[in-house]
# Entry
Amino acid sequence: MPGTAQAGRFSYRPMTDIDVLLQENRKFPPPEAFTRNAVVPNASIYQRAANDLPGYWAQQARGVEWIAPFRTVLQWKPPHAHNGFINLWLDLGLIGVLLFILGFVSTYRKALSLASATKAAEGIWPITFLSVLFVYSLTELGFLYRNDLFWILYVAVMFTLRINSAKDAATGRQVV
# Structure
């Protein structure tokens, strides 16, 4: 670097040997034998692909051995993103979404109060898990459809927090 900043001012520093080496402008073409045997010997392949993309990929596909001959090229439908809450709305309706959100918010509030009351791992785990579950649910809400690990952990966290809040109410501690 030709200069350095010192306390808000710019000062000039002479170039060192390493700085000179960082400014490399030489070009080293590949040997002729390497170019002759290359799969893509020059840049004309890009122009060919730009002129006829399906034809180009059909030609490339013919160079591959297939069990059955291909019938189409460039047929790919990108996957669409899902929103778990919209999927839940479509499956369970507005009442189902509202019940899930109310239960989730209630559980989240209890997890927040537990996390603020204790700094141990067992106090921070529920809020961490519920936060990850919420972010995961923005794209997929599949944990409601099958008994997978997310669903089992959600139910366990929900009931544990409910039991803890019931114990707190019985002992007279303030519950959020």
